Every structure is written in structure tokens, then in C-alpha cells.
């Protein structure tokens, strides 16, 4: 995983959001998926994404998590798809411009896990 | 459309959330879909839902709408699937226990439209 941004720095331009951004290395991706077994690699059908479903006790807790993820996304100028429902939130991270995964996607996936740690 | 609840009354028990809730009548559904052309009937594959995608100018506006819908859902004790992404929010309303549409789903769909009116 490369250059991690800390939470204090607000990125208005996101490095994963350029057409020529580097796709995450197979090795970094393999390490991430092996260390974070609840994150799943998906292809949709030609776009690689990582996806995870988080369980909550009710709707209100799911919405609180949704807002924490939204805040993190805005801080980094990079945005997942967030699906909020009763008792669950599903996140999908990928980099739109490259139709693939950037190292920032893996980094932000881990930051989302850390919100609940 | 039947008995509309007003926003002041908080329903902790939702009438659409019982196993024996009445499925919305074909006539009410047809009227709803004809009067609200942006709401689409979907089956998933045996569950009937209504679904609509709302467009926004950015992520922050999508999140504001997500929170308004979440608040409305909590007020009524009845919860859609809310998919939030950069520039869009997609809502799916249905009644889980009956795997079908209850009149409350149509009512809350219209209340969601009214949030942006």
C-alpha cells in the first residue's frame, strides 16, 4: 500500500481519480484480500471492485456508519457506493476513471473497517 | 392509497411489516406508476419492489437526501434500501414480510419525492 493520506489532510483532487492512475499491483491486492478476508473482489463485469457487507443491530446504526463513510469519502475526494438498509451497509470501492482498483481503494476500505474497530 | 400517516406521528410498529399485511391493490399500483413515471416496478425475482434513481450535483447533496430518507424511514418504522453514490441516490421500497408492495411503500415513495419538491 502506498502513500497513505492522514485524516487531517483534505484532498480536493483525488489521485485515484485520474485516467492515468496506476492500477493497484497484484501483490498489494493479494495481500489486502488475504489480510482482510471479509472484503471480496468483484468484477462488474469489466470493472474490478472490492465489496464488503457490514452488519448492524438496526437501521439507525447502519445510517451512522453510512455517514462516517461519507465523511471519510469527502475528506479524500474519493467515493464508494454505499448501500444502506435495515441492519446492514454494503460498500463497494473502485476507481471510476481506471475502471479498476487503485491503492487508495484498499486504503479507504481499511479506514472504513477502522471506523468500527 | 390508504390511510396516510402524517409526519408528526412516529410509528414504532409499521403496518406494512406484518406477515399478513395486505398487498397493495393492482389499481392503486397502476395509478401510482402512471402518476409517478420515474418510479419503476421491479421484481427481484419473486419480490415486487418499486425503485427510483435520483440525480444530484455531487456526493454531499446525495448524502443529505440519504439522511432525509433515513429520517422519514425511522419515523414510519419502515425502511427502504438506499444506495448512495457520487451524484445519485437509488431507493427501493417494498415490504419484506409480504415480499411484495404494501400501500405504505407507495406512500413513502411519494414522501421521498416530496423531500426534493
Please provide a written account of the structure.
- Two copies of one chain form a homodimer.
- Chain A has 117 residues and is of the alpha+beta class.
- Chain A has one domain: Gyrase A, domain 2 (2-Layer Sandwich).
- Chain A is built from three helices and four strands, in the order αββαββα.
- In chain A, strands 1-2-4-3 form a four-stranded antiparallel beta sheet, with helices on one face.
- In chain A, strand 3 and strand 4 form a beta hairpin.
- In chain A, helix 2 packs antiparallel against helix 3.
- The first copy, chain A, is globular.
- The N terminus of chain A is likely disordered.
- At the A-B interface, helix 2 and strand 3 of A face helix 2 and strand 3 of B.
- Strand 3 of chain A pairs antiparallel with strand 3 of chain B.
Largest interface: A-B, 16 and 16 residues
* Overall residue-averaged pLDDT value of chain A: 87
Look at the structure and name the CATH superfamily of chain A: Transcriptional coactivator/pterin dehydratase
Strand content of chain A is 15-25%
